Amino acid sequence: MNYLLAMNDGQIRFSIILVYLGLLLGLGFFASRLFRGTKDDYLLASHSIGPFLLLMSMFGTTMTAFALVGSSGEAFKKGIGVYGMLASSSGIIHSLCFFLIGVKIYRFGRKHGYSTQIQFFRDRLESDLIGLILFPILVGLIIPYLLIGVMAGGGVIAVLTEGAFPNLGLSENGSIPPQYGSLLICGVVLIYVFFGGMRGTAWANAFQTTVFMGLGVVTFVMLANRLGEGQTLLESLKNVTAKVPSSKLTRAGMSQTLFLSYMCIPLSVAMFPHLFQHWLTAKSSASFKVPVICHPIFIMIVWVPCVLIGVWGTTVDLPDIRPNDVLPYLVNNEIGAFMGGLLSAGILAAIMSSLDSQFLCIGSIFTNDIVLHYLDESKISEKRQVWIARIFVILIVGITYVLSLQGYRSVFTMAVWCFSGFAGLFPIVFAALYWKRLTAAGALSGTLAMVGSWLYLFQQSGYGANTEFALSPFGSEYPLMPVVAIILCSTVAMLVTSFITPPPSQKTLDKFFRS
Amino acid sequence: MRLVIILMVLSLLVLHQDFWNWNREELSFGFLPIGLTYHIGISLGAAFVWWFACTFAWPPEIDTADEQASESGEQA
To answer: What is the CATH number of domain A2-255+286-411?
Structure first.
């Protein structure tokens, strides 16, 4: 007890984070007790996920460091327009993708036994090559997405443990250095994914989504009271808002065409491999109804407080910190150690609820689309297949961790580039489901056009270093996000090539389209 | 019904581009910037549209396919 009383604020916060991580590990071990020992159970939870768990796991997966740390940081820089730019647009587009693409993919997945996107594309396009082309692209795009979480997790722990261990010599300010925080996050996620598989991941996601949504609202109320210093919450809200510069309360300085073109970014969810895998865990098509309806409201519950906290950050005399650190800094400095520890656990919950699914889906892609596709599946036992997936998960976690040590990037910018790549593949998945005339050559050229245009534009932006990079095809007063050009390139290449190559066989068309 | 849903979604996408709120500084309830209040409305509107779509335009063939899939799964 004396030890507890003697702890400094940073140590209290760190202890709470450790308790939270311990709970997650417990959940993973519990889920592993229900494991049936098959690959299908490890990777798809035997298609047993009902509407509520599907909603929570899909939402938790799509909301990452980008939603909490990135949104508050970007709102700190640009004001409240960030909400319209990505949150309300995602409410429309994400659910549209779940409705038009998710449900159909689920149907085909159950009917034909798919576990990954690549299996679907290989079958629909009668092409083995499309799998070989898509594999490195999907893995290559998911790694920056993973990096966002790993780097943000380490950064959050570093900010929140400031002064915790002044005598250990770990860092100048006595905090846990970001690389150690990232390692801790990677380790915990790896352990519960390793043992719990998709069932553990879905449960952990549901638990973490509840935690970060609940604690997000608590953070909002506590920061409002602290920064506004009113007698009531409403008075505090009015007081703190009155101190915000008017430019942050409007979209003055934000381009309308840029705002419009941001609408293309959420199309990326249609091609997220980890989301694809979550779709396939559903118990039935009807399980999708709750996620489709509630997703826009859940986005609102998470993003509105974060955006407001971000603009409130402009009212505080902040040291020279990075935008990513605005939220953890405010939690660290404006809220007591105990609540600060709980709230920091909430931030980490949002980050880890995406990392787990991403790690698992990469294990799934490698196992199904490379190992089992090219080796004789019947000669590899179910148990060994599960182990192959686990080993690849470990490898990817290791690679991601090493890459995360390479330096700082804006969470928001990295996420937008990563999402732009996935959005560039949207026309291909849409056409595969709704356009009979799509051919393998069309899909391949569309995919390569996406990669080529993405690489070119990413290089032009200084590999993400220019955070304000935009296209100006109609003059500099009408900038557009690079995602518009990427989608245009992939669509044109796909359409032209499909029209000049022979259509798919009637057998395939009968399999995927009603006559 | 599909046409109604398509029109509703298109309306949402158009309403999302609220250039008329761009520089408005008014606050709702004394603390919520009007541009943010408007987009909260868009989020709620999206939830309504998707509820409408799931209730009145859920493709019936999907549920039939579900039954077939589960039957074939049981037989396997």
So the answer is: 1.20.1730.10
